[in-house]
Each structure stands twice: as structure tokens, then as C-alpha cells.
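Consider a typical record:
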Amino acid sequence: MNVILWIVQVLLAAAFVLAGAMKLSRPIDSLAKRMTWVNPLPVAVVRFIGLSELLGGIGLLLPAITGVDAWLTPLAAVCLAFVMLLAAIFHIARRELSKLPSSVVLGVLAAFAAYGRVVLAPF
């Protein structure tokens, strides 16, 4: 189970770090071409979402790898699952059902990582 959790954590970390870095670094016009949901939101909200994803992705790996405050890893996973729940609600409210599967899959994987690191294979 430990190996499966590490694979899930690495994949989630890669997805969230890349998505967060993109939302933090790219101009809003460039993001809006691929992510239409950024248009109605203030720039600060889009950047905050990016920062949350970036830090959450780092939190999935760094504390566990270093062994320093490893309890932060499941906390990061819980927070990312919550972010994806909010993303799913946002997309449902905007009737963007095609965007829903990625939010749900990432959210479920993050919840699994949190549960796994607390119950199944804690550090």
C-alpha cells in the first residue's frame, strides 16, 4: 500500500505543481484561452488558486521525503481534496460539466492519499 500511495502522491504533486505554476506565472489572457473559467474571476483569485495548488503539491512530497513534520503531507492532501471539491462545485454552478471529471478524479485521489497516509500507511 505504501508504494501505491507514493505513486499517487507523486502523480498528484506533479499535476498540482504544474497547474499551480501555470496559474501563477502565465498572463490571464493566455490562461483564458485554455481555461475559460478564469475570465469571470479577479486576477488575485486565480493567482491564489495557483499558489494553493503549488504549495499543496509541494506539501504532498516534501514533508514526507524529509521526514520533517510528515503530518503535513496528509494535511496537504486534505486541503487539495477540498480545493477540488470547490472546483467541482464551481464548474457545476457554471454548467461546465466537461470540466468536472478532472476535478473529481484529482479530488478523489487527494482524498485517498490523505486517508492512506493517516489510516492505511502512516509515516
User: Anything to note?
Assistant: The CA atoms of residues 78 and 116 lie 11 Å apart. The chain has one domain: 2-120. Residues 2-120 form one domain.
